[in-house]
Fold:
Amino acid sequence: MVDSLNALESRLNVTRDALNRLPPGNEDDERARLRADAVFAGVAGRADRAISDAEHYRQVGGKDGWAEVAYAEYVLSAKGAPPDSIEQAVRSMNDLMARDSTFIRPYVLAGRLLLALRQKDAALSKLDAAVALNPRHVLAQSLIDQERGK
Structure:
């Protein structure tokens, strides 16, 4: 499994490198590139890069919540993130859900963050909402089943 993960990460890095070598596009293209880099760095647990790319994304007009998503991904990926970081990320996800109740990712991230805080009932509520928005959301449903012992 580790070999498969390493192979996938290598393919992803090659693809990201090719994307980042493209000539600069219009403002929307650049925002999309920064958004992808910020989220990738967050998932990879690369704090400095996730935070700097997310801030740069905001500076070029990104206001749709992806900077907050990148931070939440980082908090989940970081080894031993302090509880106040997790709580801040939950608040950010709640703010995103209040701004756009159809944006599914904050529900799933909030659920995962709340599980990390051992707040099972609150986590299940967020994950249930994600599945209500998308009944085929595999990760949300898997987490629900795992927590409910199915």
Notes: DSSP finds eight helices and no strands in the chain. The helical segments are 2-21, 27-43, 47-59, 66-77, 83-99, 104-116, 120-133, 138-148.
